[in-house]
Amino acid sequence: MKNKKQLRRTRIEALVVLLGVAGYIWVGLDVPLYYRMPGVPGPSVFPVVLGIIMAAAALWLLIFPGEEEKPPKGAPEQSAWRDFEGRWQFYLMWGLLIAYVFLLPGLGFVVSSALLLIAFFFLLGERRWYLAIPIAVVFTLAIYIGFARGLQIRLPPGILASVLR
Amino acid sequence: MFDSLIYGFSVAFTPFNVLIAFTGCLIGTIIGVLPGLGPTGTIAILLPVVFSLPATSAMIMLAGVYYGAMYGGSTTSILVNIPGESASVVTTLDGHKMALQGRAGPALAICAIGSFIAGTFSVIILTFIGEPVARFSLRFGPPEFFSLMVFGLSTVASLTGKSVVKAIMATTLGLMTATVGIDLVSGIPRYTFGNPFLQDGIDFIVVAIGMFAISEVIITAEGLRTGERKQMIKAKSLWISFGEFILSFWSILRGTVIGFFVGILPGAGATLASFLSYDIEKRIAKNSETFGEGDIRGVACPESANNAAAGGALLPLLTLGIPGGGATAVMLGALMMLDITPGPLLFQKKPDLVWGLIASMYLGNLLLLVLNWPLVNVFARIMAVPARYLMPIVLVISTIGVWSLSYSSMDLISMGVWGIIGYYMRKHDYPLAPVLLGLILGGRMEQAFRQSLIISRGSTLVFLQRPISVALLIGAGLFLVLPYFLERSRQFRLARQAAPKGEA
User: Fold this and answer.
1) Structure pTM?
2) Structural domain spans, chain A
3) HEC readout, A96-160
4) CB distance B359 to B8 below 8 Å
5) Which residues of chain A does B404 touch, with a Cβ-Cβ cutoff of 8 Å?
6) Which residues of B touch A126 (CB under 8 A)?
7) What is the pLDDT of residues B68-126, one digit of tens each?
8) A20 min Cα distance to partner chain B (Å)
């Protein structure tokens, strides 16, 4: 059972999926065919079949998004991030995660991971900086030494290349 | 045959080989427990060490490492909701819920016990009925395989999540993702948009870590805010109770049988076995409404199945030279190290080696149980680490798993994108497990589909002309439709029961 807002969102999801599937099929049909033997299916066949299945499922959701439920009067909206501070934290966490995956190769594993850990420790409720910072630094270095030296995984040294070598 | 098995055990159970197997299990467990580093990665890291050993010992070490890493993968599924490898994806459904309830110890213990029982039974089944069953499995051609995978995916689509349509969409998303990269039949790149990094396709680890690890950090943050998730989860029990063991026992046996017979089919693998066994267990077990909410049977059954499948997969490996999954691919490498080519006559020509291999896998299972008896206590206590520290550290370690795949920032960015998709899907009741299963089976499924059409010269009737294939397709349809009708008939029955009361 869903409320009106959820039903509308489900329909929007279905529309987005339909658009995505249209693009997927279009690109799939555009795959070049260098040779063709009679009766042998080409590289577009399977993607097109999948696209049709996905489109059918999305159409179903668009037409039958679920049953509507009237929320009880005065019931609070169910979201962990509904207040301003929460929303700010939510977007900051995502921003940090995205920045981390982009900056890791250039900035280096130790610096980027230590910064990410400190930021997340604070965002997840740690207020004692004298604990959070040493734990983040010690763990990052321990992980770096364990993986890079112990397991021979090449972690990016980044701006600390001269120190870590 | 029994004498050969005894001889195999005498080869595997020398003090040196037991020590080697123990070391392999320990290293495998410790590395496998790091999220993102599954059995394949672990073995790749250890290959230089393995190749310096005598051939038989190398094979035994590989078996130990593989089982250790498999167990390590299940451990991350249970403790932090991140599947370490594909066969333990389904373990996240109940295993992590158990951990959040303070029952990580029993969940981890039943993994080790279930794996041991499954390993024992699969050796017994392999010994006595292995060869005739292997002959039967030869009847599985591409159309049967395609139908088996449709069957597997349809059961998954109907078992996870609240909406079957959303589960179908999740499964299809996984299959569509598997079409990215070089087409195995024609060699033409698809959906790569000229990017060379996409030519190898999208790796399971990238999707699994993105969808599970990244979304888990944000969901944990939400849980901490709303109070649904505690910072520290105190263990209620560190080892399994007798009652829990009895409750799981039949699930372990059923998982073993299903896992073995699915594993025996060349190319089916432990992942499909674990999903199928979970689904069947959920349907036939008593009080199955607790599945997905932290039911120990939901851990016992798939964990036994994936272990039994590893045993069953030895048959197509030894008789046909076809590895069914990760474990057997490693064993194939070991056999090649010994300069032995698998084939139908291997059982007659080299019985000592074949049974030595089977015995070494059994030894791996046994040592895993011995080793994890004390380790369960250690791993279960990880849940007592405050979530504000645990989850970010797990995320950083998971990122290393993704980075180590090809040392490319493309994988990291892809992980971030899958993280956003995974979070959205989790928040809006789209199940994640079918995406991963679709991704794993997609390539093989497409190959089977196209090979079938090549055989039939383009006629799709080929799937309906073979009895095994048609039976599997009917089964797939029933699995999708039956829950709907059963629910309707239950509502109808309840309405009929309620009607006289209402009139009275």
Assistant:
1) 0.82
2) 4-63, 84-164
3) HHHHHHHHHHHHCHHHHHHHHHHHHHHHCCCCCHHHHHHHHHHHHHHHHHHHHHHCCCCCCCHHH
4) yes
5) 147, 153-154
6) 386, 388-389
7) 888 888 888 888 888 877 788 888 889 988 988 888 889 999 988 998 898 888 878 87
8) 11
